[in-house]
Amino acid sequence: QVQLVESGGGLVQPGGSLRLSCAASGSFFSINAMAWYRQAPGKQRELVAAITSGGSTDYADSMKGRFTISRDNAKNTVYLQMNSLKPEDTAVYYCNAQGELRSGRPFISWGQGTQVTVSS
User: What is the arithmetic mean of pLDDT over 66-95?
Assistant: First the structure.
């Protein structure tokens, strides 16, 4: 089992910044990709950004230049630095991790989500 615990969400004014963190724990052998998704009310969950164990990153077009994903492999933690936040960034942000369990089986895990609200 792999557990993901997110933190760092909250209320911020437009133009402000927030940093999300997600720490993985459990019986895994390796974590390959980690990612952040978000889901706004009435909308489908969408990819925000992803990062591989080697540090390669990918971003949704609307987040490029404003959001930065990073990870600390030693701490099994992924971060999302969000700058120049807009009201349309309001959503529940979910952490995702994919890798291999100690048993050799692959896993995909999700965090419980953290609310980000951008409002004046």
Answer: 97
